[in-house]
What we know:
The chain is α+β, with helices and mostly antiparallel strands and about 150 residues long. It has four helices and ten strands. The protein has two domains: about 1-65, Roll (2,3-Dihydroxybiphenyl 1,2-Dioxygenase, domain 1); about 70-145, 2,3-Dihydroxybiphenyl 1,2-Dioxygenase, domain 1 (Roll), CATH 3.10.180. Strands 5, 6, 7, 8, 9 and 10 form a six-stranded mixed sheet that branches. The model has no long low-confidence stretch (mean pLDDT about 90). This is VOC family protein. It holds the Pfam family Glyoxalase. InterPro entries: Glyas_Bleomycin-R_OHBP_Dase, Glyas_Fos-R_dOase_dom, VOC_core.
Amino acid sequence: MAKKIFVNLPVADVPAATAFYEAIGFEKHALFSNAQGSAMIWSETIHVMLLGLDFYRTFTGKEIIDAKRQSGALFALAFDSRAEVDAFTKAALAAGGRELHEPEDMGFMYSRAFEDPDGHGYGPFYMDMAAAEQTMAGGAVEPVAA
């Protein structure tokens, strides 16, 4: 069985959040969705659970951040081309997302950044691994320390 990730996000309005994620290509899994939350499928291995604030509170005793004012996590999503990165970002902006900065092009990597209506940050990107390996090996870019 493939390993999967289920990201749980607190949202102010479950139907509005669901509509946003459907607009950017996620599919709602009806079996695991109700008024308290929506199970959204991005791929066979990546799912996002949109949980209403009251329901989210049942999973933690911690204060829930206001993702519009505080950062709790940033989600980088890999795509197969620059065009797919642009199309995904364009869909997010059309559905009510907010662009965080202009596109960034490092030659071997192209990325965009946006927030969903609740303030959760996404960084869709495309990376040409062969070009990245060549660039990193040549010392043009400092490797990220582990």
